[in-house]
Amino acid sequence: MADHEARAQVDAPADGIPTIRWEEPPEGPVLVLLDQTRLPAEEAEYVCTDPPSLVEAIRTLVVRGAPVLGIAGAYGVALAAARGFDVDEAAEALAAARPTAVNLARGVRRAQGAYHRALAGAASVAASTGPDAEDSAGTADQVALAAAVAALAAARALHREDAQASERMAANGLALLGELLPGGGHRLLTHCNTGALVSGGRGTAFALARAAHDRGQLRRLWVDETRPLLQGARLTAWEAARAGMAYTLLTDNAAGSLFSAGEVDAVLVGADRIAADGSVANKVGTYPLAVLARYHHVPFLVVAPVTTIDPDTPDGASIEVEQRAAHEVTEVTSPSAGGAGGPGGGMSVAPLGTQAYNPAFDVTPPELVTAIVTEEGVVSPVTAEALSELCGRS
């Protein structure tokens, strides 16, 4: 594929949603993000001109969701290289911006590795031509340019791969739903946001629901609001409406009544990190859904790319769970003002000085997971051995 064709494929947004793209205006390259804190009130863009601005965008949830964080991290390394920043320093800051999502650090390391390999290769070639003082400055510039190009190529490759993985996950999940729930007419419950806003393609769990919709097999998508930042209400409902899907929004604590009424056929969620034993870290509120699903004999499916599986994290207790600021719980912020802004930016709903417990994620043990659906296949039952075999194949 020609380079310009590859760029066009990457930059074409899934379902018309411009979640993330690389641009090269005359004043220098930038990374452009769809500001998810402002949805659904407005579709505003957030332009990152340097690594610190991207770190801030990640921390404040301008861009969020495990797969796209990996893509953003890789582009962040490319941005550092292209703009003349210390690449390794930028890489460390990016990788640490959100600790639970393993894809972020992996995307950063992939582009960082490509940068250093190209740097070493170009330097070796330059050295073999002999020391020429007159050309030394030009040679150094050429070496730096070659390394920056390599980092960008790695980021673009990751972007394309994630889009392809999204389609394969949806296909694998659709086949599994057909086995578990023959006859179609599925009523699916999802939590947080797992669509094109978190991916280079159509997403993870939402991509599966979308595939069911496209084939006339989706009867109803139940959308948890996902407190405290309302990613379900603000983002999943927005994506579902754009796709013309039949969906209904519910408060997180209403899910139990849906299960008891027999209105849920399966639960679909994503993942930010899957430990080696199959424990799944995902947006807080996922674990209670898994408990409800088990009690009511409803399949609980985790849809995530293989890159989310972390063999270096042995079990759920080893997953670092990000703790977020209290004001996200004690204040309500209008999306038009930025849904995850700083303290004092919203209307207080608790007495001044109230402490808040605000973990960004919870961990679901493997025995509560019916299956993990990846682009490389389905793992069911979920065991350490099965996950290890899957990772080995991929």
Short description:
The protein has helices at 3-11, 51-59, 66-83, 87-95, 102-128, 136-180, 205-214, 231-243, 255-260, 286-295, 327-330, 384-393, and strands spanning 20-23, 30-34, 45-48, 186-190, 218-224, 247-250, 266-269, 273-275, 280-283, 300-303, 309-310, 331-332, 347-348, 361-364, 371-374, 377-379.
What does this structure look like?
The protein has 394 residues and is α/β, with parallel strands linked by helices. Helix content is 43%, strand content 15%. The chain has twelve helices and 16 strands. The strands form four sheets. It has a seven-stranded mixed sheet, with helices on both faces. Strand 15 and strand 16 (377-379) form a beta hairpin. It is globular, with a radius of gyration of 22 Å. It starts with a helix and ends with a helix. Mean pLDDT is 92; it is low at 1-10.
